[in-house]
Structure formats: C-alpha cells, structure tokens
Amino acid sequence: MTTIRDVARRAGVAPITVSRVINDSGYVSEKTRQRVEEAIAELNYVPNALSQGLRFNKTNVIALVLSDVTNPFWTTVARGTEDASSEENYSVILCNTDEDVAKQDKYTDLLLRRQVDGFLLVPVSNTIDTIRFIQQQGVSLVVLDRQMPGVSVDTVRADSEGGAYELTRYLTELGHRDIAILSGPEDVSTSTQRVAGYQRALQHAHLEVDSELISFGSFYQDSGYERTMKLLALSRPPTAIFAGNNFIAIGMMKALYESGLRIPEDMSVVGFDDLPPGLLVRPFLTVADQPAYEMGFRATKLLLERIANPGKPPHQEIVLPTRLVIRQSCRAI
Amino acid sequence: MTTIRDVARRAGVAPITVSRVINDSGYVSEKTRQRVEEAIAELNYVPNALSQGLRFNKTNVIALVLSDVTNPFWTTVARGTEDASSEENYSVILCNTDEDVAKQDKYTDLLLRRQVDGFLLVPVSNTIDTIRFIQQQGVSLVVLDRQMPGVSVDTVRADSEGGAYELTRYLTELGHRDIAILSGPEDVSTSTQRVAGYQRALQHAHLEVDSELISFGSFYQDSGYERTMKLLALSRPPTAIFAGNNFIAIGMMKALYESGLRIPEDMSVVGFDDLPPGLLVRPFLTVADQPAYEMGFRATKLLLERIANPGKPPHQEIVLPTRLVIRQSCRAI
DNA sequence: TTACCAAATGGTATGGGTACCATAGCGTTT
DNA sequence: AAACGCTATGGTACCCATACCATTTGGTAA
What we know:
By secondary structure, chain A is α/β, with parallel strands linked by helices. Chain A is built from 12 helices and 12 strands.
C-alpha cells in the first residue's frame, strides 16, 4: 500500500507537508503543492481513512439499523438516508434485524467497535436497553419510526395515530359501522397508535368499539391473510377492514380474493403505508401514506447535526404527517 | 472513550494482557482473565475496530455499489449480501450510483479510503477504468449482474441470454410471430444479451428479425410506457411484447391499460425479473425470474473467499440460470 | 543442584496520519 | 539595524491496539 511517507519521499518533503496538501490546511507553497500532487498522482496514493478516523476520533460513517430492507417502506427510508449522508461525505452501513433482539445486539456491538459516528435505529420492541447503551457510549442516536417511552431520545416518526384516525374517519363518513383493524405487534408503538387513532375516530362517530374487530399480529402477509379469514368467519363480519401496514394489506386482499369477495363491492379496505408507486400498474388501495423518503432524509440530517454539535439541546421528536390517498377501494354504505 | 489502557489500569495489568483476553490469544492465567473481564464489564469497554483495522490491515467491511436500492431486484440482492456477510462478521456499506459515472467515481474513492476489504460492484456502463483502478489498488472485487468485456474479473450474473431465449421461445411456441422487445440501455450487457437471446429464439423458430420491433432505452417505467405506445402506433403492431426488466414491464402494462387493451386477450406480455412475490395480490405476469437473493449471496461468498485467499486462481464467472415462471399473461395464437 | 522449558506478563515499536510546537527565511516597520 | 510577523517546512508525540521480543516465575528432568 502507498502511504503518506511514500508520497513524501517521492516529493522530497516531510509527511506532514503532504498531509497539508491533502487537507488543504496550513501553509504550502505553490511549487511544493504541485510536486506533492504529482507524486500523489504518480503513486496513485489514497489516504487511509482508518488512521484519520483514529486521529480525529471520527469516521464519517453512520449505521442504519432496521428490520428488513426488503420491505419497500424501509427501502425508501434507506434511500433517503443514503442521499442525505452522501451529501456530507458520510457512508452508511446497513443492517437488518428481522425484529430479532439477538441480531440487534450483535449489530450494535459490531457498529460501536467500528466507531460509527451515529446510529439510525428502528428499535426492536422493548429494547430500551440498547438505546441506553448507545447513548451511554456517547454515540449520537436517532430513533426512527417508533416511539420509545421511558428514554429521552431524538425521534423521527410518522403520525400513526393521526393517519389511522383519518383513514377510519373516512370509512365512518362513508357510512361504515363495522370496521375491523388488523394491527401489528402489540408491543410496537406504531401498532398501538394506529389502534388508538382508529378508536378515536369510532368514538368521534359515536360508534361502539368492538374488541372482536381489533387484532394485533405480525406485520407480515400471512398474518394479514389469516386474520382476514377469521374476520370473514364471524357471525357478523365487518363491512370494512383497515390493514395496519402494506404487507398486512396484501395478505388481506389475497384472502378476500380467494374468498370471492370483490373490492370495494363486497368489502371496503384501507391500508397504512403506500406501496411504492412504481410497482403497481394501477394502484387502487386507499391508504395513509407515510413519507418514507423524507423520514429517512430528515432523520439523517438530524443525526448529522447532532454529530456536528454534540452540545445537548433537548431531544427532539419529529412527527411527520401522513397523507390520506383516496383511491377506489371503498364504497359508501 | 474507554481504551484498552483504561481497562489495563483498572485490572492492574498491561494493555497487551487485556488484548490477549479480548482476542483469546497467548497465555493468560484464569485469575487475570477474570479480573480483566470484570474491568471490561465495569467500564463498558468496546474495542476500537479502527486501530485493529490499522494494525491488521483489514476492516471486515465490504462495499455494495449498485444503481438503486429502490428497485426490488437490487433490494433483494442487497439482502443476500447482507446475510452472507454478517455470517462472517463483515459489515456492508451501501451506495447507490443511479447509473451515474460521477457518483460511482466518488464512491469508489471514498470506499478505497475507508480501506474496505472488498467491492461488490454493479458497474455503470463503460466504466472498465473503475474496475482496473480497484484491482490495481489490490482490493478484491466481484462484479455483479453485468459482464465487462476487456477485463479479467470475478463476475456473478444471471443468464440473460438464456432467460430471454426461453421467454421468446415460449411466445413463438404459442404461435406468436410478431414479438417486440423493449430492452434496456444499449451499452449494458444485460440489455444486449436479452436481445441476443430473443433473436436466437426467433431464428430457431425460423422467424425473421424485424428491427422495428427491437428497441433499447432506459430501465425505467417511463421508457416502457413510451415505447409501448410507439409499438401500438405501428401499422402492424406486435401480438406480444417482451419487457426487458421489471420496471419496463410496469410501464408497458400501464400503456396497454390506458389504451384499453386487455392482457392476454389483446396483447400477450412477458417480462424479465419477477416482481417481489410479497407485493402483488395476484401475480399474473409470465417472467424469467432472476435469482436475486442468491446472486447477492453467492457474489458475497465469492468475494469473502477472495479476501481470505488473495492468491489468484483464475477469475471466475458464475452465471446463474433464470427460471421461467409461466402465469396468465400470454395467449396462444 | 543445575539446566531447561512452559506459562505468564510486560516494554517497545509499529500501522498511517496529523496536532502541536519548533525553526528558518524574508519582507516590513520603526 | 533591530524587532516583528507572515510564510513555509519539519520533528516528535500521539490516536488505539497488537506483533515481537524480553523477562520473570514455577515446575520438571537430568
């Protein structure tokens, strides 16, 4: 490998002078600068960011720890993160936890060793300890998507309660009285907040909350499929179903399709999270769209700001509004 | 920050002894080991991977440079990469080039500085120089998805020619004689190879190749949409269309839908790349499915092997077969 | 008892780059 | 001519962990 010393020897100067040229700091005469730059070009010298990182105590690397990039929602968040960080010459290390505490722990340790300058974390449920540990190590941290009660931490998330309220309100105004919700895991804030918004809308419409119509489960398709089948088997099935995320919505629609029920003629449906616009020929599902790209982008900008100014103003919680996108998946009753 | 010296002081030993405990190397008495481990726990010591990397000349980080994670094909590749590398305690830095040479150059430089142990690269078209530069810096490299003539380099890709042949063959056997292909950019190997497979199938069926039915363009939806519209405006439009990738297929289907043409009654269509199974309620498009996850996984394993054994056996080219998935988007003629 | 060896531990240099301080040349001010 | 300050450059120590060599202790073989 070519080092700064090789370049220095070739240019006939001291290593520190090469360093000055590279970083454009301090005094270097035009003649020397040229000689050094020639030497750099001739030797194809590439500065070693490890030793710079060691010296400066700064790596310009941040970690993005989320459940699964395969979900287009997270993909989009990841893209926002990448764009925001590359603007400031930061690199992103991507890690998938699959909602598994062990994986999250493993990655946290690995990333701390790597001296990442900051964490963007979508915490696995009930892992406040991880957050505390990162904070205690003095590494900047922004929590994404989920609210973590019990710790003071910067957070960027979407307004699950509000979005769910709007969606449900839309259904009640169409005349629906029996509305089911297929939410996510009970220990994830986004799940409970979506149920809370749903309940508030029902109350607003003076409808009773029927616990049979509320369910929690995983955020994956199978769960949407199975729970929809159960709903259809009820003595009095709902006239509308609210899917707690995009995957649940897919499972739900599959179940309806297989049961021979048409949307919206036989069942009105709405969902949280849009599916990526590129992927459907004809999007028809009415949804509360979360600004995924913006979420990634803003969380990253906030993180980089925290890294740049480690002085501790109070932690922020940025709640981004969702957007009600009305399409053709609901009918009036 | 807590360093190995702090731990050593606390445990009353020399730093090197702590190092031995951490890495489980050399002789350490049971008593000392315990004292050191206690000190580590008490101080929440986390070893600094930067200095280890500097010392060992190894970072356990690889780079994944692709065009855009937002495309589900690449998302899946990325997931394969992440899984394969985390198995061996490697981390992945993800970069999107958007097929832009300047971005690729910028990232290459940045990643070389960061002393990544290897590159997984989906090269922007006509950028052999980038590949040469990385190789010349002595960093392991595996090219993904695309064939780069003119350099000797490890490559993992899918069999575009073969997949295109199968798809086209399927259409000719259904009786189609006027088959159009909407390929990707002319300077990307996957595009030309798909056209080549298409042509071979036509020749096999003793059909003439009509250059009016062959087009190159971007891999994005708009391009698929526009070129489909042009095809429909021909005096003698095709009876079947072959979309060169998943996004082109979406654009194509949108154009057909807006033109009031039904699939497969009025137009038979096939595509390269499947859409992620999770994202469609009812997949109906007949496709040549590329093993995206496996591609990422195997390319990563190959890269890690190269990193572990820098001895240079001849470069490999691994060509993964595509899988013809027949659904309901074509009719016999 | 001496010689020798394994076990246990530590001192110092090293990896690549830079902060800090030192030095020297040269022009300007008084 | 002395004093000062700016420009230009270099020496040394340090960031953190570890390779290498050295040293000490205790035990076993001759």
